[in-house]
Amino acid sequence: MDKAEQAAKAEAFRALHRGPPLLLMANAWDAVSARIFEMEGFAAVATTSGGVSWALGYADGEAAPWDEVVGQTARIARAVSVPVTADIEAGFGATPEAVGHSIADIIGTGAVGANLEDGMAGPTPIRTVEDAVARIGAAREAARTAGVPIVINARTDLYLKQIGDEASRFDEAVARGRAYLAAGADCFYPITLRDPATIGRLAKALGAPININVRAGYPSVAELEALGVARVTTATQITLMALATTRQVAREIKATGRFDAINPAIGHPEIQQLFPAKRGG
Question: How far apart are CA 72 and CA 63, in angstroms?
Fold first, then answer.
């Protein structure tokens, strides 16, 4: 895919944030999960940092080597024709300049979007607004330089880490959302925010796309759309479900010595059809 085609795909992905309908994405962790989501009709595919890290054999939290994350993202982007957005956590870089390099690498995989989060490990749970803004700005500048206007999904960990009380947390989310959008983000992602009233207030206050991650018990697509949500993702949840099924089957055959649990609802030929036959020598 040349840069002009990739740039056009990035703009098409951005347009999907201007619903209704809202943009619903299931998060992939490898090429075959991405292909399944594409074949099931999802208009775009997001990666999950946890799922990608675990598939590579590392813990979540930027523990995987960057070149392996880039390689896995490239395999996912190559496997599908729909837009791919990559969860690259805090950007795999200590400085804004380093984040810019990471964005350039991700653009090189064929992806047309990226998540950047403001949470930190250690005693300081979240970056200052100024630091987070500088990193988003560097990411946007790297995209301009590359000629691919990727969609930047700026995640805040205010709700995940329950920073402040409910009122101050909301006010801080609005302030951060406005600052991140002004710095070059396209979408604001208050991860783990669940309360419908707060979601609706936040969407109205920002007047811009927001991303809500979902699991059982969350409002439905129709309800979230009515609240003004532009984008919905599943984060690590489908990866965890797949791993739970794998563990359950392993436990059953080990415990019983029988193989009744090995009865897949999808067959080898059907999965084979997801990928074109390899040609050439």
Answer: 14
Token pair in block for residue 156: 């805040």
What radius of gyration, in Å, describes the C-alpha atoms of the chain? 19
Q: What is the pLDDT of residues 14-23, one digit of tens each?
A: 999 999 999 9
**168 SS3 class:** helix
Please tell me the predicted confidence (pLDDT) of residue 218.
97
pTM: 0.96
H-only helix segments in 2-95: 3-15, 31-39, 49-56, 66-79
Cα dist. 93→3, 90, 97, 101, 138 in Å?
Answer: 24, 7, 8, 8, 11
Give the tokens for residue 260.
Answer: 């009744």
pLDDT of the residue at 137: 98
Spell out the residues 6+ positions from residue 93 whose beta carbon is closer than 8 angstroms to its own. 99, 100, 101, 102, 135
Reduced to 3 states (helix: H, G, I; strand: E, B; else coil), residue 148 is coil
* CB 199 within 8 Å of CB 225: no
Cβ-Cβ contacts under 8 Å for 55 (sequence gap 6 or more): 29, 30, 72
Burial class (CB in 10 A: 0-12, 13-18, 19+), 247: exposed
Residue 192 gets which letter from DSSP? T
- In this structure, what are the phi and psi dihedrals at residue 83, rounded to the nearest 5 degrees? -60, 145
Question: Which residues share a beta bridge with 45?
Answer: 84
User: CA 231, CA 25: separation in Å to the nearest integer?
Assistant: 8
Across the chain, mean pLDDT equals: 97
